[in-house]
């Protein structure tokens, strides 16, 4: 898959994950009244992790569909690795959210700023570490990685 196609898919998946993140934040803040500083930060953390799980599923199936499909323990390791890679962005987003919230930035604009700030780092980590393609003769090779190989 060409880099431009992968980047397009990454942006589509990421945008849909961001929409899910926004929807969850609205649900927590507006419907469940998570409207204190502490509760908004809890809502932010929950919303981020749910959107990360969603992002992993779509990234594995569609954005990096040409990457080896790990199974069993390998899949668990890949999911944990994805979460650890996302943790860098999550921590940055939590710090950004808390800082901007303390300045009174509207919570949805705040979420948008955090998402935009970490998107590039996430793409590089996912592409180079999590969904790395096996290369044969300088061409990606789609291989199924079983428990014995991961």
Keywords:
4 strands, mainly alpha, two-stranded parallel sheet, disordered C terminus, 150 residues
Summarize the structure in words.
This protein is mainly α and 150 residues long. It has one domain. The chain is built from four helices and four strands, in the order H-H-E-H-H-E-E-E. The strands form two sheets. A two-stranded parallel sheet has the order 1-4. The chain has a two-stranded antiparallel sheet with strand order 2-3. The protein is elongated.
SSE inventory with pairings:
Elements: H1 3-31, H2 37-63, E1 69-70, H3 73-102, H4 107-130, E2 134-136, E3 139-141, E4 144-145
Helix pairs in contact: 1-2, 1-4, 2-3, 3-4
Short structural description:
With 150 residues, this protein is mostly helical.
Separation, N- and C-terminal Cα atoms: 24 Å
Order of helices and strands: HHEHHEEE
The total count of strands amounts to: 4
| Morphology call | elongated
Question: What is the arithmetic mean of pLDDT?
Answer: 86
Main sheet record: 2 strands, parallel
The oligomeric state of the chains shown is single chain
Strand order of the largest sheet: 1-4
């Amino acid at each position: 898959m060409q880099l431009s196609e992968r980047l397009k898919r990454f942006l589509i998946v990421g945008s849909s994950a961001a929409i899910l993140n926004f929807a969850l934040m609205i649900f927590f803040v507006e419907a469940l009244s998570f409207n204190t500083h502490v509760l908004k930060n809890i809502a932010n953390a929950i919303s981020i992790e749910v959107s990360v799980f969603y992002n992993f599923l779509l990234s594995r199936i569609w954005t990096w569909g040409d990457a080896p499909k790990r199974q069993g323990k390998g899949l668990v390791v890949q999911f944990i690795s994805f979460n650890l890679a996302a943790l860098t962005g999550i921590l940055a987003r939590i710090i950004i959210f808390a800082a901007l919230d303390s300045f009174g930035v509207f919570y949805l604009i705040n979420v948008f700023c955090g998402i935009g700030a970490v998107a590039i780092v996430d793409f590089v980590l996912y592409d180079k570490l999590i969904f790395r393609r096996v290369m044969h003769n300088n061409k990606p090779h789609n291989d199924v990685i079983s428990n014995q190989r991961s």
